[in-house]
Amino acid sequence: MMRFLLPLGAFLVLAVVFALGLQRDPRALPSALLDRPAPTIDRPLLHAPQQRFDVAQMRGQVWLLNVWASWCGPCQEELPALKVLAARDGVPVYGLNYKDKDGPALALLARAGNPYVASAVDADGRIGMDFGVQGVPETFVIDAAGRIRYRHTGPVNTQVWQAQLLPVIRSLR
Q: Are 70 and 59 in contact (CB under 8 A)?
């Protein structure tokens, strides 16, 4: 009898663990940086390599950091929407071009539209690691004090903007 109960008990435990795992949102990635100061981004700008990205210049305003790459299909899809939404609601969006080459990145922005006030080049991915980026696109809401207040994984579209990003931005203004 015990020979049948032990495998049955093990199966039931595994079934419960799998069922609990299926109920979790795979896009809900925890971020250890929430409510902490945004990491320093000391990288050249994509459109002006002689200039550096300076997070200190954004102090006093709520802004978005959008991590993107030209090789990322969802990033290509979100650029036009991000440009329209940010302009409509007056939200400054800065980019972090992640593990990409300048030529293809510039070509994509020329073709799809450039929503960024400026975009820093993160060719080696170190800044992305500092932010805990697990894939592109990812978008961070950063408050006037320079603290990360929200993280969205995946492309930004009108629904995400209205339901998730804009309420956080408005609460911080």
A: no
The maximal CA–CA distance of the chain, rounded, in angstroms, is 76
pLDDT digits (tens, 9 = 90+) for 82-112: 999 999 999 999 999 999 999 999 999 999 9
Concatenating the DSSP letter of every residue in 142-173 gives E-TTSBEEEEEES---HHHIIIIIHHHHHHH-
Q: Which CA distances in Å does 78 have to 53, 62, 109, 112, 133?
A: 22, 20, 11, 9, 17
Tell whether pTM > 0.85.
Answer: no
Q: Which residues contact 74 (CB under 8 A, 6 or more apart)?
A: 136, 137, 154, 155
